[in-house]
Specification:
Elements lengths: L17 H21 L5 H8 L3 H7 L3 H23 L4 H22 L8 H23 L9 H13 L5 H15 L6
């Protein structure tokens, strides 16, 4: 078992039947999109409609709005951890940059649901531990290869990227430039 797998009590519990699992995943994706676009007050009926299911299916999977918030958040963290595994074979700097771009997507989801979930909860602590266990080796590899500055901690790097990813930008091109500036601050200086 990889060290950053979420424990069963916080992992998203997907249904076993394939059709039920498809509905569940469609609901998570629809909720993620709705929360990012409309905030946490997005109507559950709209989420069910986006997912192509009835409201009863939504409530069968997520009896409360909080259950849906938690599942969306944990799902994002699971995807972030999986992305770290998927990037392990890429060159160190490329892997780190790709993961940080995925982390930027996670920031948007976290911003959408953070006020609805307790930051002091066991769920947040477990998710944070899993995320750090997934991402820290990517930074360590980039530092060992000389691509990333040795004086940057993982926490420093995440705070920098969170700032870049959560600022209001005029368009996606500006957001990419701002994230590029943050990445430049992490990258080790190249010899002249």
């Amino acid at each position: 078992m990889s060290p950053h797998v979420l424990t069963p009590r916080v992992a998203v519990q997907r249904p076993h039947r394939a059709d039920a699992r498809r509905n569940f995943d469609a609901l998570l994706e629809a909720a993620r999109t709705a929360f990012a676009e409309d905030g946490t007050d997005a109507p559950l009926e709209d989420i069910a409609r986006r997912a192509g299911v009835g409201i009863g299916t939504l409530y069968r999977n997520f009896p409360s709005r909080r259950d849906l918030f938690e599942a969306v958040y944990v799902g994002e963290v699971e995807e972030l951890c999986t992305a770290a595994d998927d990037l392990a074979e890429q060159p160190p700097w490329d892997a780190l940059v790709a993961w940080l771009h995925r982390f930027g997507d996670y920031v948007a989801t976290k911003q959408a649901v953070k006020d609805e979930l307790s930051a002091d909860s066991e769920l947040f602590r477990s998710c944070r531990e899993a995320m750090y266990a997934a991402g820290e080796p990517l930074l360590a590899r980039a530092q060992a290869s000389g691509d990333a500055r040795p004086d940057v901690s993982f926490d420093d790097m995440l705070r920098l990227v969170i700032g870049a990813a959560s600022c209001r930008c005029v368009d996606d091109a500006q957001r990419e430039r701002v994230l590029g500036l943050a990445l430049d601050a992490i990258r080790a200086p190249r010899p002249a």
